[in-house]
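Record 1 of the preview.
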Amino acid sequence: MARRLGVIPHAYARPLFVGLAGSESPAASAFELVTESSAQLAIELRQGNLDGAFLSPVDYAREYTHYSLIPDAGVVSRGETSTILLLFREGTPRLRTIAVEPSSSAEIVLTHLVMAEKYDIVPKFVPVAVPPAEALRSADAVLVSGDAAAAMAGWDRKLDVTDEWEDTTGLPYVHGLWATRPGALVQAQVARLRATGRDADARLGAIHGGALGYTLGPDDIAALTEFLRMAYYHGILKDIPDMKFLPDASSAPLTATH
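->
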């Protein structure tokens, strides 16, 4: 039986999703894909409308008691990838306001941490629902991510925020990973999701100069934990979430929830 799986629409994460749709997967590991923002996917997952989803670290952290994580697969930036960009208005002397798309919760937190830790400034984040060029008429900068960032990669006055994060902390940035409601997926489906990172890396090889990857190792999990710890330290998260990964199939077989 196909389970409902939430995915985000951005091209940088799409390599994880190749072949997961029901018509392209073996029946035992098939999924019905639902495309939404990570914030909306977190809501749908918590409400039981999805069986699993690709969530940003912040969306996982805010509801972590409801979820389990699937090991090995995710999206990681190491250096410049043009996945999260801060675009500046020409002639801006000080960074006081940043226009943001409200659902970009993890990207907003990441930018807040970079600005505070590296530049010792705390700009105001202003929600907008207009194109970047229009947002810059009233804000000093605009934060763009995903496909919107890729489209603005040629902008002259910008910071690559994942590169700034690595420069500040020496750590990669984990954009997101697979989460599920406990017991919602059969073992074959968990195994299929665990394999998506390895499959994506093998299929694509080095992209963005080798800076964008899809396999999560211990160093990436440590970087994710540090990101969430810093978000708690800065008062953004109410606590530091447990990283609750599903166990290996050989030690704890899963059963399906019908």
